[in-house]
Automatic annotation (TrEMBL):
PANTHER family: CDP-DIACYLGLYCEROL--GLYCEROL-3-PHOSPHATE 3-PHOSPHATIDYLTRANSFERASE-RELATED, CDP-DIACYLGLYCEROL--SERINE O-PHOSPHATIDYLTRANSFERASE. The chain crosses the membrane at residues 7-26, 93-110, 122-143, 149-167, 179-196, 202-223. Coiled coil: none annotated. It is a multi-pass membrane protein. This is CDP-diacylglycerol--serine O-phosphatidyltransferase. Gene3D superfamilies: 1.20.120.1760. Belongs to the CDP-alcohol phosphatidyltransferase class-I family.
Length: 232
């Protein structure tokens, strides 16, 4: 029973990594909307695994390492592949090199965070987290056809720099809602917009399972926090 309990958060983390892999596959096939939705699901899972580990008292060093590896795939490689296939591929080796900067900067940011995690404050992150940067890059890639190319390139490079910068970003860890709620909310809005346009058949059924489960998880977190505060 103890082994099963400790494995549950890791299963969420591995699922996050798997959806990142599926996103890469969809980008390679030119299906960027599906690739974005799969990254959205990865973000949901990423925001849940740590909280589930704390709820089950199943925190472990293995889980922390898995989380970093999953993040570099789902929020580093997958968004960069979206950007490459949808825009940078037309510039040949130069475009490939530029697109590759995103996971490189993201990996450096994760490594720096891991070695400084004990020293860092709970109130802020140093540099933009790779999850937030990957989510923003995914949104930018979806709408890059509606903006000048140089704007997209500048935004791409800016996100890379912000990840490794020393800028203090509020962590919002003390707020009961799962982290990166703003970006996830934008993604949810986009997904619901797609459904509203009656294009459901084009998208993976994962999204119709993930959204209700995630909303239920948020609701549970709010109720749990309210009960905890009322007992103090």
């Amino acid at each position: 029973m103890h082994i099963i309990r400790n494995s549950i958060p890791n299963l969420f983390t591995l699922a996050n990594l798997f959806f990142g892999f599926l996103s890469v596959m969809n980008s390679a096939e030119g299906d960027y909307k599906n690739a974005a939705i799969l990254i959205l699901i990865g973000m949901m899972l990423d925001s849940m695994d740590g909280r589930i580990a704390r709820m089950l008292r199943a925190d472990s060093e293995l889980g922390k390492e898995l989380d970093s590896l999953a993040d570099i795939v789902t929020f580093g490689v997958a968004p960069a592949m979206m950007a490459y296939y949808s825009y940078f591929s037309s510039f040949g080796i130069i475009g490939m090199s530029v697109a590759g900067l995103f996971p490189l900067f993201g990996a450096y940011r994760l490594a720096r965070f891991n070695i400084n995690a004990v020293k860092s404050s709970l109130k802020y992150f140093t540099g933009v987290p790779i999850t937030a940067a990957g989510g923003l890059l995914t949104l930018l890639t979806l709408f890059q056809l509606k903006m000048p190319g140089f704007v997209f390139v500048i935004a791409f490079c800016l996100l890379c720099i912000l990840m490794v910068s020393t800028l203090k970003i509020p962590s919002l860890k003390e707020i009961p809602l799962p982290k990166y709620g703003i970006i996830i909310t934008l993604f949810l809005g986009y997904a619901l917009y797609i459904v509203f346009k009656k294009e459901q058949h084009r998208f993976p059924y994962f999204i119709y399972v993930a959204i209700p489960l995630y909303v239920a998880f948020i609701g549970y977190q709010l109720v749990r926090t309210k009960r905890k505060n009322s007992t103090k």
